[in-house]
What does this fold into?
Amino acid sequence: MDLSAVLRWDKDLLLALNGSDSVFMDGVMTTLTSGWLWIPLYLAFFYVIVKNNDTMAQIMLALGGAVLCILVADGVTDGIVKPLVGRLRPCNDLSLKYIVDTVPGIFDKNFSFFSAHAANICAMATFFSLLIRDWRLVVGLALWAVASCYTRLYLGMHYPSDILVGILFGGFVGYFSYRTYIYFYTMVTPHTTYVSTQYTSSGYNLTDVDIILTVLSLLFLSSVFLSLILL
It folds into this structure.
C-alpha cells in the first residue's frame, strides 16, 4: 500500500467519523474537548497524590511524573514534530475544509500531525493508571482518553492517523514518566507491597480512587448538562 492510498483511507475514515447533524452533540463535543473542563480532574489527582504519600519527596516525585508527561508529550508534539511535518488540519486543508463538518468557534491554525491532545491525555492516563493501579480507574481513564480523542475527529481538528500516533506516543511517554518516577521513588522509599481490601497494590486508598472516578463521571455529565442548557 503506497502513501497516497494511506492518506486517502485517512481522509475517508475521518469523513465517516466526523461531525453530525445534532446541535446537542456539537455542544457535547465542544465541551469535552476543552481543557478547562478537566481542571477538577487534575485537582482530584493532586488531592489523591498528596493524601496518599507520606513525605514531601514522595509527593513531589509523583507530581513531577505527571508534569513530565505534559512537558515531553506536548513539547515533542507542538515544539518539534508539528512544525517539521507541517500537515494542515482537516478544517484548514483546502481539499477538505468545505466538506468536513466543523463547529463555529472551534479552530486552530496550528498543524495537525500528530495530535498533542491525544498525546497529552494518553500520557496522563497511562501514568496515573500505573501509579495508582486500580482496574476501575484504568477503565475510567481509558474512556476519558477515547472520548477526548474522538472529539478531535468529530470537530475536524485531526485525521485518524494523527490521533493514532498521538495515542501511541502518549502511552510511551506515560510509561517512560512512570519508570522515571519509580527509579527515583525507590531511592527515597523502601519497596512495599500492599495486600488489603482498602488499598491498591501501590498503596492508594480505594476510597480516594472513588473520588477520582466520581469527579470524572460528574464532568462527563456536566458536558451533557451544559449542552442541553445552551440549545
